[in-house]
Amino acid sequence: MKSIYKFFIIALILGIIAWIVYFVVSKNSTPIELIENTSTSTTTEVIDISSDTGGEDTPTSTTEQTLIEQSDNGIFDDGNYKPETVKTSFSEFKKISDVPAKFYWYYAENNRIFYTTENGQIKKVIDGKSELVEINPLKDLISVRPNQDGSFVLLRFTTASGAIWGIFSSMDEKISPLNPSIADAIWDLNNEDIITLQNKNGKIDITSFSRLKNYSEGVTLIPEIKLLDVDLIKKSQDELLFVEKFGNGYTTSIWQYNLKTKLFSTIRSGLLDFSIKTTPEVYFSLSKNSGFSIENTSFKRILPTTHNTIPEKCSAFLSTAFCFVPQSSVSYFDWITNFMFTDDLLYLYDLNTQIEDQIQISEFTKKQIDAKNIIPTYSSLYFINKYDNFIYALN
User: How confident is the model over 157-175, as pLDDT tens digits?
Assistant: First the structure.
């Protein structure tokens, strides 16, 4: 028995010695591994903004990427840098079109201007030069309505069988005719589907057409509507606005239809010489009753305006609105019928701070501007000058 006890005692002592050796070795090796990892991580996270890389690509750490995304009031959208605010000062005045333009739009994906000429041709501007889009000229082009990013455009033009609507793809540069029974059309909020006034055997329905179905099968939203000579506005997912068209000396009413409750309500009435331009951000309106105002989608003034102008001289992008303001009083009817031209100043309106400010442009424009069809982008402000109908840009 004593020999057995001796054996266990010796084995226990050897086990304790082995554990001590293992503990000491592990304790010495672990800090080295941690220091190496910590050193590697620190090297990755260091951001050197002053050294010159000589044009070589360098890895970007997560921290560096975060700092870049948060800097300069900008964001990254699908890898493309987009500032969160638009430029509000300009130093260059540039003619964009090579001939007078009747309509135009901005295709955001390619940062490109498309425009239509007086003889119905469609042109695009690439690297400062106008190129002809290879489609047959559109006869008697009546209306052009791009969606929000300019990727698709509703066009109304005349064919041998009469006036029809079609959709132009800015990507494919092709026109797809729509059902000839469509009398009027606007874009839905998803910028792909359309809402139309559709003539069905002399009765007018409000109908929705889906791009997924190639705009061939309509869904009736309001059957046999009694409102005539109105403009459609999609206010929200469930609300449609009907605005009586302008008539000199006549009053205008605005009605709202709720697609869920299927009820009409009067929003405004008795508006004399009324005009409105809507953007996703704000509405611009003018009437003899209340003058010019910038409103939210509920028609509530959201900031004070000290100058009267015409809604067609305004637009908004993100949190900034731009308006060209005539230096003297102007009749809306005389302006839209080209009996009167204006000499404009440029104002911006910060929709967050509610500040109105004039932008000085006269020192480099060197010409009178009577602006219409305003399109602000991240870095430019486009418009047509009514004096010559060319497209210009403030950069």
Answer: 998 888 999 999 999 999 9
